[in-house]
Amino acid sequence: MRQDVKAALVIVDVQRYYLEPEAPFYAYTESCWPGAMSYIGKRVRKTVFPAIARLRQSFSAVGWPAVYLRLCASMPDRSDLHRFFKSFNASAESAGFQNAYPLATDPWASVATEIAPTASDYIIDKATFSGFSGGSLERLLRSMDIDTVVMTGLATSQCVDTTARDASERGFMIVHVEDGQADYGLAEHDAALFASRGICGGHVVDSEFLAAAPVRLIRAYAASEEL
């Protein structure tokens, strides 16, 4: 069993504008796809928040970092956003919902208060699906000698999956936390995790299982990939 593994908990886009009904993004999305946002909000509060809190505590105890990703814009005209996000923001604006995708400085872009970062955590902003698109995430992980990323956050089939696949392409081992992720429906969530098994080596775990012995489990997964 390998002894030199080091993991980072990656928390993708668990931001206020996804979870609070007053946010323009939430309100517009719910008007387009009734029930989608209420579903994701309920799952986040029931399973995702507890899972992330559990893993943050467990990882901190062994000296492993937490990295938060935030999906938000830096340009007022949203020109830096991925074309799908930019188009969605324009559609929301035409329907009377201003700033659906908030600027980085907007309070709506903040991480949900229930799992707010501490002074020792890391925050990286992105304008597209993958956390690796700007280069900052990979540089940070390399600087800390991280070889494994433990994926949590929103949404399973979109930004979480894309970030995980990009991490795999860069040589990182991937572990998905099933109860630490949420999508706009259970079918999308389950399908994304099933499809991702090929790039994560089947490492899809429950947060309680991982939190109980993170170092031993990650070492075992790393050893299994070397067989």
Verbal overview:
- With 227 residues, the protein is an alpha/beta fold.
- The chain has a domain of 151 residues: Rossmann fold (3-Layer(aba) Sandwich).
- It has nine helices and six strands.
- β5, α7 and β6 form a beta-alpha-beta unit.
- The chain starts with 6 loop residues before the first strand and ends with a helix.
Share in helix: 40-55%
CATH homologous superfamily caption of the domain at 7-16 and 48-74 and 112-225: Isochorismatase-like
How many strand units? 6
Strand order of the largest sheet: 3-2-1-4-5-6
Order of helical and strand elements: EHHHEHEHEHEHEHH
Q: At CATH's second level, what is the architecture of the domain at 7-16 and 48-74 and 112-225?
A: 3-Layer(aba) Sandwich
Quaternary status of these chains?
A: single chain
Mass-distribution shape: globular
Please state the structural category: alpha/beta
What Rg do the Cα atoms give? 17 Å
CATH class of the domain at 7-16 and 48-74 and 112-225: Alpha Beta
Main sheet summary: 6 strands, parallel
Assign the CATH topology of the domain at 7-16 and 48-74 and 112-225: Rossmann fold
Average pLDDT figure: 96
Report the portion of residues in β strands.
15-25%
